[in-house]
Structure formats: C-alpha cells, structure tokens
Amino acid sequence: MGRKILFITTDQQRYDTLGCNGGTIARTPVVDGLAAHGVRYERAHPQSVVCMPSRSTMITGQHVSTHGVWMNGVPLPETAPSVAEVLQTAGYRTAIIGKPHFEPFLDPFARFPENGFAAKGTFGPHRGFEHFESATHGAAGPLHYARWLLATHPEAVGMYYPVLDGSLEVNAMGGGDTGAPQAWVNNIPKEWYHTDWVADRTISWLDSLADDDDWFCWMSFPDPHHPWDPPASEVGRIDWRDLPLPAGYIADQAERERVLDAKPRHYRAWYDGRLVSNYEAPLAWVPATLTADQVREVNALNAVECELIDEAIGRVLAAMRAKGWDDDVDIVFTTDHGELQGDFGLLFKGPYHVDGLMRLPLIWRPAPSSRPADAAGTIVTRPVGHLDLAPTFCSIAGVPVPQWMEGKPLPVDDLDADTRAFERVLTEWDSELFGVGVHLRTITRDGFVCTTYLPGTAHDGTEGELYDLNDDPLQRVNRWDDPAMAALRSDLVADLWDHQPPQQLPLRGVEAPV
Amino acid sequence: MYGTIRHEIRIHRSAADVWALAGDAARLCEWFPGIVSSETNGNQRTIVTGSGIPMPEEILVCDNTQRRFQYRLTLPVFTHHRGTIDVIDLHDDTCLVVYSTEADPRTMALVIGGGTAGALQELKRQMEGAR
Fold first, then answer.
1. Which helix (H) or strand (E) holds A29?
2. Are B50 and A116 in contact (CB < 8 Å)?
3. Which chain B residue is nearest to residue A119, measuring alpha carbons?
4. pLDDT tens-digit profile of B97-110?
5. What confidence tier does B130 reach under pLDDT thresholds 50, 70, 90?
6. CATH for B3-22+57-129?
7. pLDDT per residue as tens digits for the range B52-62
8. Is A169 within 8 Å of B105 when comparing Cβ atoms?
9. Sequence ranges of the domains in chain A
10. Assigned superfamily of A4-252+280-423
C-alpha cells in the first residue's frame, strides 16, 4: 500500500484569498491548516492564465507550447499523455470529480467525450480516470451536476446567473447590491450548490474504495470563478460595505489610468472598452465603469465562495479521517489561474501577466506518515509552476517521472529548490479570436517578472513589461523601457527563449469559444 | 455581433468524387461528426446533433457546376447564418474543400466552425481511404 493523493483545485482563485497567504476577508481554516503542516509556495505560477491550457498543463505536466492547448476552445487530444493514466497503470484507483475542462464546454454536436458521459449515465473512463464526474459553474450544459440538479431539483436550475446572454456572449448583466457584472443573488439552497455537490460526490467515491486501495482523486471545484452567485443564504457572512478596497485597486481615476497607460496598449484599450481579447471577459462590459463599491461586492461574494470551498474540503478531510486514512494521504491544493478582481480597475482575466492572474495559492500537505511527527509548515519562495504537479504526483506514488513531463517534483523547501535549480517559471498566452490576436511570453525569475509581446492586433512585437516584485509588488511601474534595466531585461528575455519549448505547429484549431 | 470562420482541406481525390458526397444534402450525417441524422424535403433539411438538438435548415444553393452548396440554419437564435461548402478542382486529381460559416451571434460561428473543421477531416479520411 502506497501514499494516496487528494488533488484539490479551485477555479480562478487569487493567492491572497487564503488566510495563510495573508488574506483577511475569507476565513479558510482548513486550507490554512494544511499549510501549517505542509509546504506553502509563495511564487507558484500557471503556465497559462485561462482554464483549458492551464488544466492541460496540470494533467500532462507539459508547457502549453508542448501540449498544444494554446487557448480556450482548443481540445486536449484524447491521446495526450495523462498523469492519471500513469498512476492508474501503477495500480492506483483514479477519479476526477468537478470541473475538468480539457475539452470545450460549448458543444452542441456532443463531439467531446467529456460532455457525453452524463447523458449516457456513465462516468468515464477517460484520460486515465476510471471515474469521471463533472460539473461547471452553474446548471446549464451537459455535465453530471447539471443533469443531477435538473433531475432532482428542477426548480433550482433557473436560480443561477445566466452565464451567456441572448447573443451567446458572456453576460455583462450586473446584479447584487451594486450592479457589479456577474454578481447575482442565487436562491439555491447551499446543499444543492455545486461546491457542496463536488464534496458530496468525492466522499461518495472515496466510500467506494477499499482501505488498501491506492488512489488519486482530483477534486475540482468550479468556484470562485465568476459568476459570483453563491447561495443567498451565505452572502450575509461578509458585508461588502465593511470591506477595504484591495491593494491592487487604484481608487484615483487619473492615477489608475496613468498606470494603465504605462503598460502595453491592450490594457487601456480593454479598460476603455475598445478591445476585448478574451471571450470570458463580457463583451458588453467596460472596465472603466467599475466602481469601488462594485469591487468591494465582488470581493465579498468571491470570499463567500472561498469559504464554502474551505468548508467543503473540511468535510472531505473529515470523511478521510473517519476512515483512518489521513496519515497516508498527500493533499495538494491549488487553482488553475487567478482573477484580476479589481486590480488596475479590471475584473475577470485575459492577456495580463500580473500577479492577480499569475500568483497562485499552492499548498502541499505531504502524507503525515512520510514526515517526522513534529514537522511544521515550510515555505518555498522560489518559483514553481503547474507543470511541476504531475511529476510530484508520480514522485509521491513512487513512479518514475515520464520523459514527456517537463516539470520536476515540487521542492519541499528553498534549499531543496536551490539544489534542484528551481530558478524560473514560464507563462504563455496566445489567442486568436474574432480577428483579435494577442501573444505573450513571460518569465518570472530572481524577483522579476518580464513579459515580451509578439506581434498581434494591438502590438508590434516591441512591447513588454518588466516589474520588480520586491520594490513594486503591485506591478504599477513598468520598467521595460527603463535604461537602467536594459541589461537585466535582455538577460531575462534571452533566458525566457532559452527555456521556452518550441510551439507545436501548425496550431490546432479553436473548436469553440470556451 | 457577426462572426465568420473558414476551414479548408486538400483531398487527394477528384473534385467530382468528393462533390458526390459533400454536395449531397441528405448525406451530411455521414461525414459531419456530431450530426446524427440529416433529412431533406425539397429545399428544407433538418439535422439532429449528437446532443439531440434538431436544427432546421434552408438549402440556398446546390450548384453542381460550381460545386458549391449553401444553406442557412433557421433557428430563432440566429439573426444570420450561412454555411458554404466549396469543392474546388485543383486539376491534378486532387481538390480543395472549403467550409465557411457566417453567423450572428458570432459565438455560433465558432461553435459550428469547430464542427466543420472536424467534418473536413472526416471527409478527407473517408475519401482518401476509399480510393
């Protein structure tokens, strides 16, 4: 019998939403407790800041350019390598429960297996997962949660925020108290909400296992991704009126716009409503209209969703403890990417490689049986990435890391990180949607984050961003054109291209918007 | 908002052979993954998708000389739709098949366009495999 693995992901959760990372709004004692007894990473970055490419990196352990899911809407081939398959071959029982999103979700032709299981009343197998039980952000669509809600509580289906508008664009409709986009009063009972459903179904799957089974379970919560529509019964936990504005929000309009103007032009163009380069940013919403109160309300609703996730994780951990399994379970918690959540006056996400989207919560609580009984939490400050997750799972399972994985098992402290050369982390963005193309390559190294732009709709290929994370943690001063930084900039860009894998060409087709 | 998507593929088979299948409105379900049936009645065609959605269409053009087939989905969700299949003879016993989609709302252009890309791959597979 080996170590079991509970891999917990959320969707679009910022680093600073956890108490252990300095968050002060959401109460997250369960995840904080994992950090206190494990390893907390202070500089974990995704290889993409949108769902499908990022999740494809998690399952393959590969850079985006290698696995080829270069933007949302590009399916990960069924033949793509999968860490779940590696573990299954090694004898592990395997499951994914919650949001997968390796294949496009808008799929009227039902061409993608992910979207077909629920209609057939089946649960995989798929991509090495013997059990594949899916959910997304609401009650629409073909996934298991939506089918369950329709079958058991049809009156609740219409309570969720309508993610798409009548033109099938991502909805800009405002709600809540402030009219914030995608804020919504959802009268669904908490017990029927997808967060609790994911935990319930995870516990159910764990109940189906034998005590001596080795298992890998990916529990994938759809929240706190927008829409911000937690159960109305829970919204009173946090009164948005009591919240301070987040540090990343620049309240003074002139100062905010000055900061945006110092960044590559697609920042200001989006802010002004002239260029939308990501389908998931509502086309009809203009960031310049975002008010301080709307930022507060979004942060409050987001924090409620984070609390619900924390409590749901607590229920799953309690179920494991009741089985006497906890000592042998490694728990890894992270998210696929962040959320701008008011930074620079922006919401949602897009081709913006700043900490709001790139700095992620990542915690690894190794199986207590694998560590000294008095081992306390440690902190890793060196850069790590999602591509290190799959090798970590292999390492936990005692399985050789396959050649096709491009990461390394996560370090357990900075000394380990230095010994094994965790020096840099790379993040890519490519999008070509409705005539708008944006292409970024980013390196984070030595306390700097450096982004170079390739030619696209709004860029001629000379633009860039360079931030000193120590002196300027909010990334307000773009030093790309600072002569004093010229040598560093050249070094970082050269290092980026030295380590950036070549993009698989031709690019695979975009088969849906998301 | 209006969106357009275009996919094309070269098939190593004569334009006439490819057109015999691609230009036959009732046989769309044979080569379009995700369409489980395609029934015609005059200039009307109804397709049913893999998710069980019936989609009524109007056939606009079926030109055996130009080898062009055009149709439009008539579901109320569309302000505009036009699908165009062109089979272009390259005069070397191969042909180029172009499948274009225009739609308003634009999201549907992308969703349908994703299906047409798969359809062209399947058409090529069938036509080249049947040589």
1. helix A29-36
2. yes
3. B51
4. 999 999 999 999 99
5. low
6. 3.30.530.20
7. 889 999 999 99
8. yes
9. 4-252+280-423
10. Alkaline Phosphatase, subunit A (3.40.720.10)
